[in-house]
Amino acid sequence: MSKKSEKSGKSRHTKPDKYRSFRLQKGIRHPVRLPGVRSITAEAARTLWRYRGLFLGITLIYGLLNLVLAQGLAGGADVSSLKESLGKVFSGHLGFLPTSLGVFVLMLGSAGNTTNQTAGTYQSILVIIASLAVIWTLRQVLSGSLPRIRDAYYQGMYPLVPFILVLAVVGLQLMPMVLGSTLYVTVVNSGIAVYAVEKILWALLFVVLALLSLYMLTSSLFALYIVTLPDMTPMKALRSARELVRYRRWTVLRKILWLPVVLMAAALLIMLPVIILVPPLAKWLFFLLTMAVLTAAHTYMYTLYRE
User: Fold this and answer.
1) DSSP string spanning 192-237?
2) What is the pLDDT of residues 156-215, one digit of tens each?
3) Cα(181)–Cα(194) distance, rounded to whole angstroms?
4) CB 197, CB 159: distance < 8 Å
5) Hey, what's the torsion of the CAs at 112, 282, 293, 122, to 10 degrees?
6) Distances (CA, A) of 94 to 82, 99, 107, 273
7) Which residues have C-beta within 8 Å of that of residue 171, sequence separation ≥ 6?
8) pTM of structure
């Protein structure tokens, strides 16, 4: 300590670094290192398998309600017709492989499509209800309790309004990505961007806007789990979520982006043999998988949130 400090009787302290969003924080690291995506994926899979009966029951109820209220018995793609149409394009000894992949891609493109606006509204409501049921169940089983299936839909609904408010914030944060996608499709389809350089520039604008949305969503997605805690308000949940990803937002984003890759690979491994060998069964199996995706995605995200 210097003589000047001794005379004043005050000690010198280093001012802590201030965190600012959208700025690189050099030399600042979070004290807790997150596990790798393989470890998180394995832990989520173990949770689903350990309580498979409970989560299967929740998923089946969600699927049944979705089938009755949203999609109907006649929904889904005709896999046999799709295979016949694509088989004319992909011929040869191994033509069945690209044909089956094409059918799988077309089924992915039609996933979630509904016959009318009312069915779409029902589908959105069911996603929120099932999400709350799965999140409540995850919190119970990971704390050592074993609830009943009906309790998930009864007791898990209490934070409905705060959950919807946080979900509205998530929707607003998706707007830059939606705007970028709309602009790119419009300028390309309408002939505004003709040359390759112009298309690349518009594509870069879309990438920048998409990254902006993903940057904001990295914290807000965790607020969906925080807001389900007792006596938690949406604003407090959003602030707590920002603290969770402080100094490691891009690291967390990489782990979130791993989720759709895993889900897509798992769906492909399950669906491809069925499309090739038993096409009539593929439509119903695909429907069950789309219902199970919600449970699997929440389990992975909740595991990451706990870490």
Assistant:
1) S--SHHHHHHHHHHHHHHHHHHHHHHHHHHHHHHHTTSTT--HHHH
2) 898 999 999 999 999 999 999 999 888 888 888 887 877 888 888 888 998 999 999 999
3) 17
4) no
5) 30
6) 17, 9, 21, 14
7) none
8) 0.81
